[in-house]
Structures are given as C-alpha cells and as structure tokens.
Amino acid sequence: MAAKLIANLIIMGSGILGRAVLQAYRKALENANKNGVAHEAISNIRRASRAMTEQEARQVLGISENSSWEEVMQKYDVLFENNAKNGSFYLQSKVHRAKECLEAVYKKNNQGTS
Fold first, then answer.
1. Where are the coiled-coil regions (predicted)?
2. How far is the C-alpha of 52 from the C-alpha of 59, rounded, in Å?
3. How many CA atoms lie within 13 A of 79 on its CB side?
4. Cα-atom radius of gyration of the chain, to the nearest Å?
5. What was the pLDDT predicted at 95?
6. DSSP letter at 63?
C-alpha cells in the first residue's frame, strides 16, 4: 500500500515538474523574442560566420602576399590532405575557407586560378 502511494506521488510530481519546465521554457522564449535577444543571438552567429579576410587566409596557409596561385594550391593540397588523414575537421575547414577566400582575390586581380 505504501509503495503504491509513493509511486503515485512520484508520477504526479514528475507530471507537475514537467509542466512547470515546459511553461518556463515557453515564457523564456516569449521574453527572448520581446527583448530581441533571439535576434541578437542570430546576428552574432551571422557575424561570426562571415568570410575570412585575405590576411587571415594567408596566415592559415602560411603564404606571403607575393605567392603565386600555384603556391597557394600546393600549400592547400598539403594542409588539406594532412588534416584529412590525421588532423582535425576544424583545421581542414579553415584551410578550405582560406583557399576559397584567396581564390576570389586572385580572380579579382586577374592572376588566374588554373
């Protein structure tokens, strides 16, 4: 009899707790939308994901401003493959983004990408 009573109390308590958590979550979302916190968080994410600068791209690949496109691609191939085999996906993606950034710069400067 006592076990049944305890079980009922646990079930009722967890139901009440679940509803309270859900209500608090909804209220938090409502407040975030009112205060613009959600929009601010989204804009911060967008700001952080902007394309890297040419200087940062050159630092990632370890090349100078006088490097040719062929040198850029050689560095890219080596770094990309090294990180694909036993490196990190994060570094591999940084290397790829650096190549994309410099590709746009070299196309703009009519130095070619072949």
1. none
2. 11
3. 23
4. 26
5. 92
6. -
Q: pLDDT digits over 71-110, tens only?
A: 999 999 999 998 888 878 888 889 999 999 998 888 888 6
Mean of the pLDDT values across residues 20-26?
Answer: 86
| CA–CA gap between residue 73 and residue 31 (Å, rounded) | 49
Backbone dihedral region of 68: left (phi > 0), alpha (psi from -120 to 50 degrees) or beta? beta
Write out the two tokens for 14: 């967890």
In three-state secondary structure terms, 72 is helix
DSSP for residue 53: P
pLDDT tens digits for range 40-65: 666 666 655 567 889 999 999 999 99
Is residue 83 within 8 A of residue 61, CB to CB? The reply is no
How far is the C-alpha of 28 from the C-alpha of 50, rounded, in Å?
29
Q: Is 36 left (phi over 0), alpha (psi -120 to 50) or beta?
A: left
Distance CA 109, CA 66 (A): 12
- The Cα 25–Cα 48 span in angstroms is 26
N residues, the chain: 114
